[in-house]
Amino acid sequence: MDYSKNEMMAIATGREFKDGELAIFGVGLSMLAGFFAQKNHAPNMIAFTEGGVYGSTPVGGLPWGIEDNSISANATSFTNGVDALGMLVAAGKVDNAVIGAAQIDKYGNVNTTGIWTEGTQPWKVGKYTLPKVRLNGSGGANEIAVGAKKYLIMAAHEKKRFAEKVDYISSPGYINGGNDREQYGFPGGGPSAIITNLGILRPDPVTKEFYLDSYFIYSSVEEIIENTGWDLKISPDVKVIPEPTEQELENLRAVDVTGSLRKK
Amino acid sequence: MANKLISMKEAVSKYTWDGMTFAHGGALPVGSDCIAFFREMVKQGVKDINCISNCNTQGTNLLAAAGGIARMEVGFAGLEVYGFANGLKRMVETGKTILEDYSNGAIPIRLLAGALGLPFIPTFISTGCDQQWCCADNPDAYPNTEKIPQITDPFTGKSIGAFKALNPDLAVIHVTMADELGNAIVLGTEWSRFELSRAAKKVVLQADYIVDTDCMRQYPNLVRIPDLVVDAVVYWPMGVWPACSTGIYDGDEEHFKNMNKMLKTDEGTQEYIEKYVNSYNTNEEFLAVIGKEKIDKLTNTATAFLMAPYKKWIKSDADIQKLMEGR
Questions:
Q1: Fewest CB within a 10 Å sphere: which of B15, B189, B250, B305?
Q2: CB contact under 8 A, A65 and B80
Q3: A27/B31 touch (CB, cutoff 8 Å), yes or no
Q4: How far does A200 lie from chain B, in Å, by closest CA?
Q5: Do B30 and A89 touch (CB under 8 A)?
Q6: B82 and B147 share a domain?
Q7: Does B193 touch chain A (CB under 8 A)?
Q8: Contacting residues of A for B99, CB less than 8 Å apart
Q9: Contact state of B302 with A60 under an 8 Å Cβ cutoff
Q10: What are the pLDDT digits (tens) for A9-39?
Q11: Does residue A260 have a pLDDT over 90?
C-alpha cells in the first residue's frame, strides 16, 4: 500500500484515541490525528480547543491557529481560557490529548521553550542564561501535561531531540521518574506514549522511563536506538506496528483535505 | 451616561505611557487582538512596555520588533502554524526584551486572581517544570523559589504552587461590537477578555463595529464587558488585520507571513513601519492601505452568519462621526 511516513504517524497517533473520550489537540499533525480518529473509529469522541471553541470541525482546510475562523464557523459554544484550559484541562477532566516537542527526555519531559549551547543549560550551570535559540514556549501544553488523564507526545525521532535530559522543561512528564509527579499534586496521569516517525515509546509502569514498545515496518530497533540520546531500553516483546488499513488511509485522507501529510 | 468614543490617536496618547504595565486582549496569535492599537503605539513611539500577554500576537511581535517591549510575561511566544514570531524572537535572543515564561492557562488565571482582588491563587499549572524554576527577573537563582512558590494547602497539608495576581495599568481589548457607553459583545472565544476587563486599572476597547445600546438590551447575556468597567471606546474597522475577527473577517495569510518576514530584521521592521504604520492617519486611509480587493476577500468569511442578528443596530460612520463630535 502506498502511504507516507507522516500518514503512518498520524494514524498511529489516532489509534490511541478511544470512542467517547473528551480530547484536546493543537493545530497541524495532532489535529489531523484527532479528527482522523473521530472519523475512523471514535465517532463519539468530543474535542474542543483550549480557548473554548466547542462542537466545531474545521471548515475549508486546516486552521492556521486553534482560534482561527476556520474552526469557529460551526461551533456550538464559545467560552474562554479559564473555562477550557483551566476548568476542563488543568482540572483533570480531559481523557486524552496530543502535544508536540522540540526536545524530549526519557521521563517524557518536553521542551518547547529554548535550545541552549551544551553546558550552559539552566539546570547545569545553576542560572537562567539566554538560550541560543528561543522557541515558542509551552502554550497550552503545560495544562495538558499537568491535567489530562493521559496524553500523547508527537516528535521527530532524532538524537539531538531525544535527550538524556532536556535543556528546559516546558511541560512536565514524569520529571525525575517514579512518583515524582506526586509532590506537585497534579490531577493528570502523565504521558502515555511518545509517537515518533520511527515508532512508539511507552513509560515503564514503575520507573516511568520510556522504552521502545513498537516500530514501523520501515524502521528498526537499531535505527531507533541510533536516533535516541539516552540508553533506550527495548521491550522484550517489541513488535512491528500494523500498517494502515485501506479504511484508515481513506478516512485520514478525507480529513487531510489539502494532502499535507501525503508528501514523502 | 457618558459617551466614551475617542480617536485611536487620543486613546494611545491619553492611556499609555513609557514603562507602564500594559495588557492586551484577544484570542491566540491567529485569533483577534487589538493589533491596530499596537500600530498606533509604534507610531507614537511608546517604549519600555512591561507587557502582559496571554500569547504573543502580531501586535506584540511588531511592538517588540520596534523596540517598544522591555519585558513580557507570556504563555506562548510564537505564531502557531505561521511559526516563530521573528520580531519578538530576535529581541529575546539579543537580550533586549526580557521574557518571563508562563503557560496559556497561567495568564488568565493570574488575571482572575487580580480581578477578584486576591494577592495570589493556588495552581498546578506551571509547577514541576522550568516555568517555575527559571525566573528571567532573577536569573541567578536556579531553581527559583519565589516566582511560583510552593505553599502548603492549609486544609490538607499538601504542597501546591502559588501564582502572583496580575493587575495591569491598562488593558486594551478587542471586541466585535461596542456601544458608545462601553458595553461590548465578543464573537468567538473570549480568551481572557472577561478577567482582563476586571483586573486592569483602566480599560480601552477597540471595536470593529459601534452598535446602538438597544443591541445590548436584546442580548444582555452576551455583554460580558459592561460599560462600568470601560474607560474609552475606539472605533477601528479591520483593526485585527492581519489576524481574524470572528464573524467579520478572516486572517490575511499573505500579509501575516510577509509581516513576520519583515520583522525578522531591523531594516525590514523600519520598512514595515513606513508602509503599514506611518502610512495612514485615519481609519479610511488605513483601509486603503489594506486595499478594497483584499478587504472584500477577507470579509467573505464562513463565520459571517454570526453577525446576522446584530446587523440592524450597527451605526454608520456618519452617525459615529456625529457622536465623536458631540463629546
A1: B305
A2: yes
A3: no
A4: 24
A5: no
A6: no
A7: yes
A8: 134
A9: yes
A10: 999 999 999 999 999 988 788 888 999 999 9
A11: no
Q: Which of B104, B250, B259, B298 to mutate to test the interface with A (most CBs of A within 10 A)?
A: B104
**In B, which residues are within 8 Å of A73 by CB distance?**
301-303
Cβ neighbours of B212 (radius 10 Å): 16
How do beta strands A210-215 and A133-134 pair? unpaired
pLDDT, position A128:
96
Give residue A147's pLDDT: 98
Q: What is the pLDDT of residue B10?
A: 98
> Amino acid identity, residue B50?
N
Has residue B114 been placed in a domain?
Answer: no
Q: For residue B103, give the nearest of A67, A135, A143 by CB distance.
A: A143
Rg (CA), chain A: 18
Q: Is B21 on the interface with A (CB under 8 A)?
A: no
- Judge whether B110 lies within some domain: no
Of B31, B84, B140, the CB nearest to A136: B84
Are B12 and B153 in a shared domain? Answer: no
Is A60 a residue whose pLDDT tops 90? no
pLDDT at A262 (0 to 100): 86
Cα–Cα dist A153/B14, whole Å: 47
Q: Would residue B115 count as lying in a domain? A: no
Q: Under an 8 A CB cutoff, do B30 and A184 touch?
A: no
Catalytic one of A16, A50, A143, A248: A50
Cell numbers at A77, concatenated: 459554544
- Can you give the pLDDT at residue A206? 98
Q: Which residues of A touch B130 (CB under 8 A)?
A: 113, 122-123, 168-170
CA–CA separation, B298 and B252 (whole Å): 7
Which residues in chain B come in under a pLDDT of 50?
none
Does the pLDDT of residue A264 top 70, yes or no? no
Same domain, yes or no, for B202 and B318? yes
Domain A5-255 sits in CATH 3.40.50.1580: no
Q: How far apart are CA B140 and CA B126, in angstroms?
A: 20
CB atoms closer than 10 angstroms to residue B310: 20
CA–CA separation, B50 and B70 (whole Å):
6
Active site includes A50?
Answer: yes
Reply yes or no on whether the pLDDT at A203 is more than 70. yes
ipTM for the complex shown: 0.96
Q: Which of B:27-86 have CB within 8 Å of A?
A: 27-32, 54-55, 74-82, 84-85
Global pTM? Answer: 0.96
Residue owning grid cell 518571563 = B100
Residue B128 lies in a domain: yes
> What pLDDT is recorded for position A53?
92
- Are B98 and B200 within one domain? yes
* Chain-chain contact of A184 with B78 (C-beta, under 8 angstroms): no
Cα–Cα distance measured from residue B327 to residue B317, given in angstroms and rounded to the nearest whole number: 16
Average pLDDT, chain A: 94
Supply the range of the domain harboring residue B147: 120-164
Q: Residue A134: helix, strand or coil by DSSP? A: strand
Looking at residue A92, what is its pLDDT?
A: 97
Residues B96 and B210 placed together within one structural domain of the fold: yes
